[in-house]
Fold this sequence. Notes:
alpha+beta, 4-stranded antiparallel beta sheet, 27% helix, elongated
Amino acid sequence: MADDPTRAYFAGSDRDRAVFEAGIKLGSIAHQYVGTPLTEATAPSLERAIEAATRVQPLVERVRVRINRERMQIRGPFKYGVLTEDLLDVEVAVRVEAARAVGVLRYVPELDYPLMYLKDVE
Length: 122
């Protein structure tokens, strides 16, 4: 983002900001889309919609969203489920000047927890 009008509001380095922004993107994905109705047929379009919505946010360089179909629980007479955090496998890369942060949201079976973590900082 060549001319960032918000730059003056942020303390720390470009690296700090990139890490902060990666966390914000992951948090927004988890909290905006959890509960969305889905089926195996609609999962691909939901993945693309989440990616597209995330890409328009400032500083996003790349985003990839996958929904784990094996963990989906389709049930009831209408045969659909809802998106839960443990179904999400997300990777988002954010760039601030020369700094780049890659954050991940994915279910970690050995923790039995959908973990958000920093994968890489350059």
